[in-house]
Amino acid sequence: xxxxxxxxxxxxxxxxxxxxxxxxxxxxxxxxxxxxxxxxxxxxxxxxxxxxxxxxxxxxxxxxxxxxxxxxxxxxxxxxxxxxxxxxxxxxxxxxxxxxxxxxxxxxxxxxxxxxxxxxxxxxxxxxxxxxxxxxxxxxxxxxxxxxxxxxxxxxxxxxxxxxxxxxxxxxxxxxxxxxxxxxxxxxxxxxxxxxxxxxxxxxxxxxxxxxxxxxxxxxxxxxxxxxxxxxxxxxxxxxxxxxxxxxxxxxxxxxxxxxxxxxxx
Length: 266
What we know:
CATH superfamily of the largest domain: NAD(P)-binding Rossmann-like Domain
Helix content: 40-55%
Largest sheet: 7 strands, parallel
Strand order of the largest sheet: 3-2-1-4-5-6-7
Number of helices: 8
Distance between the termini: 40 Å
Number of domains: 2
Order of helices and strands: HEHEHEHEHEHEHHE
CATH topology of the largest domain: Rossmann fold
Shape: globular
CATH class of the largest domain: Alpha Beta
């Protein structure tokens, strides 16, 4: 019998792997950083807010992880090159890329300027494309394979009536990038997948979990569409992330994994 079948937990072992996490101070990035730190990965954390980045790094070090930080957002090619080169020089390898950076700008389309639309697309699509390009160049040259985890959203599949034209378009593009690179990089042993959550608890959404009239009304509308009957918690992202960052997902690429309690199923 295959040794992995005797000890299936080994499939999820990322100890010693080098993971680059961008947007490491954001809702998803901070969760990803802590999960990978606790699982034994070595981390290169990137974000634009230096003080918050250091706080995330310290939390990961407290979990026993080796951590280096890069105070950069993936705004341009030079930023992405610096992020990847810093990680490679610090740890001597690149195994996992988690693109947690991104943004939203909610507005009816008739009130949104083209510049605001382009800003969302740049933050959610161009930045991810540039990061993948910088990661891929190095991993392909080394010939060792790798894992890419992008962050999409249920809004990449579904529309929204409250001014999400830029965000929905950007996440649909994220899904397309995931599938395209999954096909393009399969021959190099690089898997590319995306996690697509619905609303989950974070500093930005904490108000939705409160017991007041506005929060209750908002939750009721969401929960009517979620078969599992609740909003997401940070730990709901931990399992999918570890799966996609580990050997357990070696035969999975180009997939959008909906962490949504069944929201997109109905």
